[in-house]
């Protein structure tokens, strides 16, 4: 605008010089008056329009039904968010907060940028519903630091998507709750592209338990890594329908060429497994099918042994018979010195796979062991969030219970890479970071949801944390290694454990005993077999099964 004024005055002066002073009487006040009027009308017009804009966008907290929010981050994402929220019915911005002192007290679209130190005053002055973090470039570690900084304010925290999630146009503008992934602060290692594709690209891949938490992401990884054919094997009709629909849509949208085949079936159906392996000429198998919920398996020992051990043996033996290239067993940290049936069955499954790996075989067998994955069915985080939404109480089994956590995509990626590293018989262990105290996790989720914890010392708190006691077979803490003999690999997040194994004759005896106990429906015999076969497992002295043992001829007639 100043440039325009200068140009007009220059033209006026040149015109006066060209025409001559006698033709155009010159008054020295004309340029001054002209400039003053020009500035008044130009600036006045802009200020008038700006005033109308600010008036229309100014938060009217008393009249609006929208929830007052503070935007954390005055960068481009925060500015775009304010534009999107202005005039909306769900949220109404109050201001920005930002660490950058150069932005402080600036007004962006009518909203002032303030330092974090002003938060206390803002929360006292306004009934702030939430703080929305709008900094998609934050690394996981920085994100975790920011959440720790905001947690003491006990106001609900919402976030815009971070990192690669933000690049997805479908979720770019989605405001979501804080997730456990945000709180973990784990900086993941970029996957080794060679390891990621070695066992998958242009190969036929078989995933058991393909509708489960890990199985479905392994299947997606196979599609993204260029599998020729992906066979989804699942006994749950709905889970299989869901994953098949999602992956078929992914293939179509991404222009990929993977053929996705969905097959309903049980891992105990030896003939069906054999047919699948031969019909689709499988190269690589990821065995993710298992019963994994500790309390359920504890009360259903016969089915736990049947599915987790005999099912694994069935699939592994058929893979060996079909001479496929690679077989990867997805295992768990609960297999280490197990205190429950589920963990004992997974360790016994590991022993059988180790046995096959050391026999004469053309298949490379390996095992990948890791802890809890976030977002899996029945995991603690969704339960806590549900309890918080209901107003509490939040239930924790013990104040000192700890668990390892990892995101499902990271775990699936590392499973694929570890399987590619295998030479035969390895037990790979994933780096899970530091264990997390579940009580602290529950406390953080309550605070970041905008509530306070009610306790003996804080009787005015909003939500109580109740301790329910350890469930049968539950540990205070989990381990990833049975012994101390562990070595690194070429991947910084994948270690290799040297575990003891059983000879083939002993494994055959255990298999026959297991089949006999299962056919008899004898839960006591199943637990005794696990006790005698798995180092460190000691079953409960109390009969926990929901069905009596020896169900069969001795069962009373149905009326």
Q: How do the helices and strands line up, and which of them pair or pack?
A:
Elements: H1 2-19, H2 29-57, E1 67-72, H3 76-85, E2 91-97, E3 107-108, E4 111-114, H4 119-125, E5 130-133, H5 140-150, E6 156-159, H6 163-167, E7 176-177, H7 180-184, H8 193-198, E8 204-208, H9 213-224, E9 229-234, H10 237-254, E10 259-264, H11 270-279, E11 284-287, H12 294-298, H13 301-322, E12 326-332, H14 341-357, E13 364-370, E14 372-374, H15 380-389, E15 394-396, E16 402-403, E17 405-407, H16 408-421, E18 426-430, E19 436-437, H17 438-448, E20 453-454, E21 463-467, E22 486-488, E23 494-497, H18 504-520, H19 523-533
Parallel strand pairs: 1-2, 1-5, 2-4, 5-6, 8-9, 8-11, 9-10, 11-12, 12-13, 13-18, 14-17, 15-21, 20-21
Antiparallel strand pairs: 3-4, 6-7, 16-19, 18-23, 22-23
